[in-house]
Amino acid sequence: DQQVKQNSPSLSVQEGRISILNCDYTNSMFDYFLWYKKYPAEGPTFLISISSIKDKNEDGRFTVFLNKSAKHLSLHIVPSQPGDSAVYFCAASANSNYQLIWGAGTKLIIKP
Amino acid sequence: KAGVTQTPRYLIKTRGQQVTLSCSPISGHRSVSWYQQTPGQGLQFLFEYFSETQRNKGNFPGRFSGRQFSNSRSEMNVSTLELGDSALYLCASSLLARALYNEQFFGPGTRLTVL
């Protein structure tokens, strides 16, 4: 039973447009959410996070939105750049448990 | 400074064999965590070592084991390999145990293929 789901295996977006990556979770105990970015032949790198006490966190071109009632979060990238082409993982944790639960990832392709 | 290094980068084994993977953390980091990533799945936590002691363990069978040396380098071992063990094995290092996630740095991984 996947507690963190990224239902879109891939997403293609025009350069300069907005990229929206989605993530759904089932465990209401999750209170901390993260996005990681992974290039081929490299390990994941931390991108941005959000605590359940907030509904939005912004860092430059990256914004994460959290909708607790819908158990849904999304990552917005504006504007999308070629270097954003990568696999994006959503992950979540519950305060009482250090372990992260990861989604399967979404491959983002930015078209020139 | 040098990042997290993992060796070998690629490995092909047959069912029933055993394998040992190595991870060298960033200099000064004392915590090493191991993860398994299979196609269509997110990263699955295997275990975490800090100062040569296993601090945390995921839900994997006993065929998966690890250790950490006094220089913080870590190895993981998988015995009696099964086809389903084919995966990318990632290790991550951090200065402290249970580090904040933005302070955990991943290596490039070892791609294990079991035939």
Give a short summary of the structure.
Chain A is mainly beta and 112 residues long.
Q: Which sheet architecture does the biggest sheet of chain B show?
A: 7 strands, mixed
Uncertain residue segments of chain A: none
What structural class results from the helix and strand content of chain A?
mainly beta
Largest interface: A-B, 21 and 20 residues
The tally of strands of chain A reads 11
Number of strands of chain B: 11
Outline type of chain B = globular
Number of helical segments with 4 or more residues of chain A: 0
Beta-strand content bin of chain B: over 45%
Query: Fraction of residues of chain A in helices?
Result: under 10%
Element order of chain A: H for helix, E for strand? EEEEEEEEEEE
Provide the succession of SSEs of chain B: EEEEEEEEEEE
What is the helix fraction of residues of chain B, given as a range?
Answer: under 10%
How would a crystallographer describe the biggest sheet of chain A?
Answer: 6 strands, mixed
Oligomeric state as shown: heterodimer
Class by alpha and beta content of chain B: mainly beta
Radius of gyration of chain A: 13 Å
Q: Looking at the structure, what is the overall shape of chain A?
A: globular
**Terminal-residue CA separation of chain A:** 38 Å
What's the gyration radius of chain B in Å? 13 Å
Textual characterization of the structure:
The complex is a heterodimer of chains A (112) and B (115). Helix content of chain A is 0%, strand content 60%. Chain A is mostly beta strands and 112 residues long. In chain A, the strands form two sheets. In chain A, strands 2, 4, 5, 9, 10 and 11 form a six-stranded mixed β-sheet that branches. In chain A, strands 1-3-8-7-6 form a five-stranded antiparallel β-sheet, with no helix packed on it. Chain A is globular. Chain B is mainly beta. In chain B, the strands form two sheets. In chain B, strands 2, 4, 5, 6, 9, 10 and 11 form a seven-stranded mixed β-sheet that branches. Chain B has a four-stranded antiparallel β-sheet with strand order 1-3-8-7, with no helix packed on it. The radius of gyration of chain B is 13 Å and the shape is globular. At the A-B interface, strand 5 and strand 10 of A face strand 5 and strand 10 of B.
